[in-house]
Design a protein that fits this description.
Elements (H helix, E strand, L loop, with lengths): L1 H11 L3 E2 L2 E2 L1 H17 L4 H13 L13 H5 L3 H14 L12 H11 L24 E7 L4 E8 L5 H11 L6 H9 L5 E7 L4 E8 L4 H16 L5 H17 L4 H13 L6 H10 L2 H8 L3 E10 L5
Parallel strand pairs: 3-7
Antiparallel strand pairs: 1-2, 4-6, 4-7, 5-6
Amino acid sequence: DPVTDLLGDMYCRPAAGGGRLREDYADSERENLADLIRSDLNDKRSYAARRLMEEMCAGEPYGVPRLGNEQITAALHPQLLFEAYRELISTSRLEIIYCGSAERPRVEDALRAALADLPRTDAAPSPELAPHVPPEEPRVIAERLDVTQGKLGMGFSCGSADSAALLLGNTLFGGSSNSKLFLNVREKLSLCYYASSLFHRQKGLITVSSGIEFGNYQRAYDEIMAQLEAVRRGHLETWELEAARSTLLNAYASMGDSQGKLENFCLGQAATGRDESPEDLADQVRAVTPERIFEAMGTVKLDTVYFLQGKEAEA
């Protein structure tokens, strides 16, 4: 109950006056946000993954950086922030996720009391997630920074609605330590310091992240494409498929061990209008046949390539 009271104070009675947030608080948090945005540049792996998504989904909400940028942050004014805050808490869809030992009626009563003063009007409908429209030809973006290790990012658009098959196909491709990217491109051929792929279920995209020597760009690119083709054509050992399936089933089974993972999962499901439980998704993975994987991965096409290279690599 004390925690929900504090939550209610934060939402319903922020440090504000005269129609604006306290200027000293706003200035402090603006600087904290700017520092966080700048720190992203220090983690080149994260930076390259973000830049790939920005370029691949340019003009789409999915391509907007989660933290914004320094230019927008610098323009934030206490009055503007307060107006945005009031609109947000009044009209945005409200999701409350609780994980703990308290009985549901007690949790509901405590939250209703704490949020009784929350101004609510008609909630605006959640925007639909627009499908990604791939370019006619793959885009290639190269960027130069003062780095000693190149970052090769590759984005692929998926033309199949069979999410379970794509999820399993991506796990075979680069989504685990038993994947083709890890075992071949990294371990066997030593073309990458790291190589992995991620399936963005909400948007039907697959992104590859790898760290390479500048001079290995073409070889790494070619081998990544070759490993994708191997999955498409079903050039798999039986153990590879079972290892990929086991990786996903273990991830779903262990989700209940972490409150943070459960919260993220539930929030993601709510944001995209899905209602499957981890158990439901595990059942879907169990039902995927090799033929479904090959058919779904056959629709995966190269969309965008992002290469971060060092300044000294310039001819």
